[in-house]
Amino acid sequence: xxxxNLAEIRLIGVWRVGRFLLVLxxxxxxxxxxxxxxxxxxxxxxxxxxxxxxxxxxxxxxxxWLSGCGESPNLNRGAKKTLSFWAFTDTRTAWQKKAxxxxxxxxxxxxxxxxxxxxxxxxHDQLLVTAQAQSGGPDIVDVEIxxxxxxxxxxxxFADLKPKLQQMGEWDNLYHPSATDPWSWQGxxxxxxxxxxxxxxxxxxxxxxxxxxxxxxATWEEFVxxxxxxxxxxxxxxxxxAYLDANQWWLLTLQGGGGYFGADGKPAFNQPPGLRSLTWMxxxxxxxxxxxxxxxQSYNIALEKGKIASLLGPSWRFSGFVQQNIPSTKGKWxxxxxxxxxxxxxxxxxxGGTGVSVLKTSDFVEEAMDFVLFEHTTTEALMYDFAxxxxxxxxxxxxQESKLNExxxxxxxxxxxxLINEVSPEINNAxxxxxxxxATSALVRIGVTPAMQNLNIPPKTALTNAQNEALDTIEFxxx
Length: 479
Description:
Layout: H1 6-24, H2 33-42, H3 47-60, E1 81-87, H4 90-107, E2 111-117, H5 120-133, E3 140-144, H6 162-168, H7 176-179, E4 184-185, E5 188-189, E6 192-193, E7 200-204, H8 205-211, H9 220-234, H10 247-255, H11 272-287, H12 297-305, E8 310-313, H13 315-325, E9 333-336, E10 354-358, H14 365-376, H15 379-389, H16 416-423, H17 436-453, H18 459-478
Parallel strand pairs: 1-2, 1-3
Antiparallel strand pairs: 3-10, 4-5, 6-10, 7-8, 7-9
């Protein structure tokens, strides 16, 4: 480090403290430390400003003025203002960087964006520190669906995107259960997602056809009859039952009009839709036509050999997971809507996703909002993600793009996009809560897993116990 007069020595001390905090947080390595030092001692800033900046950097572990230590630092006098964007995977930033180039071409903005990709847990943890400090941190951030609840306990640090979307006339152009519901709370929308995640049943058409399984199944009751016959004839199963997490319970429950929470944000596990789902799953194993999901590589092998002939989920599962883990099954899969619970009911659900949020503590809220909403309501921008990850968008007008509806070779040239577009309006609304982690943990530990491992436990008992556990936990943490 350089040496000099008393003021500079004080700055050195502040810098060392700030850098030590950053090292503890595991983040200092991503910055150009010496360059930041030069900018710090040369910039005409007050001692108070430096102290505030160092404290914010240590608390947010990447926030405040220190986040500008990249290609276009905010401390450069006369430079464009720079917005920071935090993400946890470069597969997400890939399409957004292309959207940014398109935005610059069309809007000629007076700002730049710096992209910072951190490990998943580290990024979300550091964002939580930002939330608690009410300062520092990024201007824009990717927030995974399961992490969002952490940031709406108490004062929310995100800006409400709903008024701007309404002003733009785009609110009604979104599939809300995937685009906004997971990042909404008490009438405000704090993030927007581009991943539609409409769920379908993906099935081995070669296996189904050989066994004579009816591909025009309309209801889950009909599915059970086909599954019983299939197991009797082949010894294999049409569908397994996930029991170490709540994902399958969630899909079936949301399809039936229920969910983790009610409109008031309180757990709603033991309501009729959730009770029906767990009863159906448990009965499937009791009756012998289904099995508990095999773990690890055994599951992939079972799918590859057709021992398990179907799976439920969104595109990242029926497309991404299958193509990555069992590419040998290319051309052997078809897709169909979920069988209905009852006549006129939904044939789909939604599962997973990541939303993009704008921090209201940002100095550039309007600029950040403008870009985030541009990339989520511009078909050309959204097509970058379809080209890279085969992600169907939450923006309804984008489905006029022919590429979204082309035959896909992996699915025996089925027009998957047409099917997704057909069922997506049927996705039921899902409610969020600040206590997502606490509630879903209780649901799995006390409800789904015990009831599926011990078939003598009545589903109503398991779900009521899980709900009471969740309510007790929520009461404890809010007392």
